[in-house]
Specification:
This protein is α/β, with parallel strands linked by helices and 193 residues long. The protein has eight helices and five strands. A hairpin with a 5-residue loop joins strand 4 and strand 5. Helix 1 packs parallel to helix 5.
Length: 193
């Protein structure tokens, strides 16, 4: 098993540009995506190469931080009575923040951008779940080859953690974490120790 775990403190710059082939993509990244791109690049730059159709699964944790201007969208989406209005949302709410914000709030962006960066087009999914669910997804992956697993979490205050692993089915089957109910990032944190 190969594992890379990255952790960036609140306010710490995440040097993602040197890990990208197309640096312009970084304008779409939130902190979790930037950290995950770095972790993936470090793992996939290793001597082991993987097939483009390698299954790739990502588990996100509870989002505790990062605002993206959502309170402004909410406020601008109210009608004259103070209730949410779909019309106001479409005409005023979403235009009150940068269009790039939409990419930063989608849960599948770390997985999508890492896949784009490394030319991965195998089976993939984003899970909002535990270590157990991520490992079970790996066991259900198509094919017999290795599987890429990732996880990320943005904590209250801005700390970001991300991990990525290239695992075999036997490593997953024999993992003592197969029944672990903690968020998936816990597994990567433990593996990195």
């Amino acid at each position: 098993m190969q594992v890379v775990y990255e952790r960036f403190a609140a306010g710490e710059e995440i040097p993602v540009a040197k890990h990208l082939k197309n640096r312009k993509l970084s304008k779409y990244f939130n902190r979790e995506t930037a950290a995950f791109i770095i972790a993936c690049d470090k793992l996939l730059q290793s001597p082991v190469s993987i097939a483009s159709d390698t299954p790739f699964y990502y588990s996100m944790g509870t989002v505790e931080y990062e605002d993206y201007g959502l309170p402004a969208i909410t406020e601008a989406s109210r009608d004259s009575h103070g209730h949410f209005s779909a019309t106001a949302f479409a005409t005023q709410g979403m235009v009150s923040v940068s269009p790039l914000t939409q990419f930063k709030i989608l849960y599948n962006m770390p997985l999508c951008f890492a896949s784009i960066e490394h030319g991965l087009n195998g089976d993939n999914a984003v899970l909002y779940s535990s270590v157990q669910a991520l490992l079970q997804q790996a066991l259900c992956a198509p094919g017999d080859g290795p599987v890429l697993l990732g996880a990320g979490k943005v904590h209250t205050g801005g700390l970001v953690e991300c991990g990525v692993a290239l695992v075999s089915r036997s490593e997953v089957e024999n993992s003592p974490y197969r029944q672990a109910s903690e968020e998936a990032i816990h597994w990567f944190r433990e593996l990195a120790l």
